[in-house]
Amino acid sequence: MIRIAAVGDVHVDKDVEGRYRPALEQLPDQADALLIAGDLTRHGTVDEAKCFANEFGGLAVPVVTVLGNHDHQSDRQDDVTDVLTDAGIIVLEGTATVLELNGHRLGVAGTKGFGGGFAGACASNFGEREMKDFVGTTERYATALLDALRSVQCDALVALTHYSPVPDTLAGEPLEIYAFLGCYQLGQAIDDAPTALALHGHAHHGSERGRTPGGVPVRNVAHPVIKQAYNVYQLLSGTVDTKHEELVNV
Amino acid sequence: MTRQIDLEADIHRLLVEDDRIAEQGVTVHHRENVLVLDGEVESAQRRDEICRQISEHYPDLEIVCDIGLTRTQAPAEVEEIS
Which PANTHER family does this UniProt record tie to the protein (chain A) (predicted)? Predict the structure, then answer.
């Protein structure tokens, strides 16, 4: 089995340093890896990225992240990524990584994603240049996620995004802003690959559980939703574990 | 009614766009002269700064702050995904 800890929207700055650390120190007993679904910082500054790296770096389990919209606020997302990468944190954007855990291969494909809306209330790639740019961005992130999901060979595949791939996990948010919280194209990408679990954040007032139209479990792990330092999800429950170097199911 | 909604929108934009706040997860409800704030933030300083900025911008409003702090304890349960 593989146990994945997950949280999003931690918005770290100086005033948050130290708050998560006691729970993070317990991670090796709780989970095999930590996935963080974006909005790592408040404004996406390099200083805030360093605070995040201090708080979530140097852990005894691998840490995999995507960036969120807050992490783009200062237009320093590339520098933020560099700070995190230097701290040993994996940052995905239209890319994937494979972690070898307990003799299993966990694939994680990630993107920030974007808004756009869902069936019956979604934006169209039509009309003004601004609207076509908006929906073009939606489609570009979704295509990047699909390519990343299909790029890995693994025993269990997880999609990690900041924006939501389904409306189910937005329940609790005003209907009027669903189109700014996610898009159906991310859900299509997740369904077009052998995805076992999709994790996202962004919707602070949403709800935790949902499924894509194709039946893939979706979990909104935004910190205000899960109300603890991280949730833990178990995959491959019926499999035999071995040491890292003795892979099974490859 | 329209003016009331416009005020909620103005304050919501202040909460997001003011660099000292930058919170998208706080809801705003305006009833008569009372402003109710709801949601969760990551520190007491952030909650206090929200109330301070709104008081400065709208000194005639009474503010009811129901903003809580997110909890950071380790989980006690594991969900099996199937």
Answer: PHOSPHODIESTERASE YAEI, TRANSMEMBRANE PROTEIN WITH METALLOPHOSPHOESTERASE DOMAIN-RELATED
State the alpha helices, DSSP H only, in A150-201.
184-191
Non-local (6+) Cβ contacts of B12 within 8 A are: B26, B28
Segment A143-168, tens digit of pLDDT: 999 999 999 999 999 999 999 999 99
Tokens for A181, please give them: 């919280």
The DSSP secondary structure of A90-141, one letter per residue, reads: EE-SSEEEEEEETTEEEEEEEE-----EETTEE--S-SSHHHHHHHHHHHHH
**CATH fold for domain A2-235:** Purple Acid Phosphatase; chain A, domain 2 (3.60.21)
- Res A242 pLDDT > 80: no
Give the CB-side neighbour count of residue B45, counting CA atoms within 13 A: 8
Would you kindly state where each structural domain of chain B is located, as residue ranges?
2-69
Could you tell me how far CA A190 lies from the centroid of its own chain?
13
Residues in chain B within 8 Å Cβ distance of A23: 72-74
- pLDDT per residue as tens digits for the range A39-80: 999 999 999 999 999 999 999 999 999 999 999 999 999 999
Which residues, 6+ apart, have CB-to-CB distance to A134 below 8 Å?
A115, A116, A123
| Burial zone of B64 (CB within 10 Å; 0-12 exposed, 13-18 middle, 19+ buried) | middle
Considering only the beta carbons, identify the residue of A20, A42, A232 that sits closest to B72. Answer: A20
Are the C-beta atoms of residues A127 and A165 closer than 8 Å to each other?
Answer: no
Measured distance between the N- and C-terminal CA atoms of chain A, rounded to whole angstroms: 14
Interface of A with B in 40-69 (CB under 8 A): 42-43
The domain made up of B2-69 has a fold known as: Histidine-containing Protein; Chain: A; (3.30.1340)
